[in-house]
Amino acid sequence: MDEREQPLLTHLAELRGSLIKALIGVFIAMIVAYFFVDSIMYWLKKPMMDIMPEGSKFVVLSPQEYFFTELKAALFCGLILSVPWIFLQIWNFVSPGLYRHERRMLILFVISASLCFVLGVLFAYFLVFPPTFNFFLESLPLEVSGAYSISMLYGFAMTLLLAFGIVFQMPIAVYLLISFDLVSLETFASYRRLVIVAAFIVGALLTPPDPITQVMLALPTYLLFELGLFLARISIKNRSS
């Protein structure tokens, strides 16, 4: 075997090990979440229940639909619960190639990335869900009554929550890229207009085709980008002083 291939195979083995550990953590958290799946299901549908007209109801379109929807809800909640563990595995994979002072950022990285993910989920749940659901309900003609599929509703809700959780990683990503000298602060700052356009493109891809949700994803994306630049600028000043 070529000696140059050995480091690559070693890194691939380490990556596989980190992925397996992350998946095991998600699976365990999913099992724990399944014991509380009724509360999770209620929590996910409550924003829509609060604005649905009287007499509206949720339906299932197949016998197994509700059971598999419960599994998806438990998996989603398990993913949220295991976010710190997932970020820890990511850091453990990349940390061997870092300097000692960079490895000390482990706790800060895990806490901040996990916090940003949870904040993104909460932002979507409390601030995005109500106007989004209201927009779709108000778009229905008067002669159309609502009977909403459980799997479609929960699929929509979980997709939106995950999208915001991921987007809220923006300041962490920007800060790390600048801190590790992978991208300069000046380069990021020069691409502000491009970031604004990209934010709206991402909003259009990850959200339903309504302007309210798209703007409510695109605007935080850009503001979080600016927050990442701000934090990196402070870090650079502290290192140079």
Give the distance, in angstroms, between the N- and C-terminal Cα atoms: 49 Å
Shape: globular
Strand content: under 5%
Please give the count of helices.
Answer: 11
Characterization of this structure:
With 241 residues, this protein is mainly alpha-helical. It has 11 helices and 2 strands; from the N terminus they run ααβααααβααααα. It has a two-stranded parallel ribbon with strand order 1-2. Helix 8 packs parallel to helix 11 and helix 10 packs across helix 11 (211-240). The radius of gyration is 21 Å and the shape is globular. Mean pLDDT is 81; it is low at 1-5.
Please provide a brief summary of the model.
The protein is built from 11 helices and 2 strands, in the order H-H-E-H-H-H-H-E-H-H-H-H-H.
Secondary-structure map:
Blueprint: H1 5-34, H2 37-49, E1 57-59, H3 65-81, H4 83-94, H5 100-103, H6 106-138, E2 147-149, H7 150-167, H8 170-179, H9 185-190, H10 192-206, H11 211-240
Parallel strand pairs: 1-2
Helix pairs in contact: 1-3, 1-4, 2-3, 3-7, 4-6, 6-7, 8-11, 10-11
Core attributes:
241 residues, mainly alpha, two-stranded parallel sheet, 11 helices, 2% strand, globular, disordered N terminus
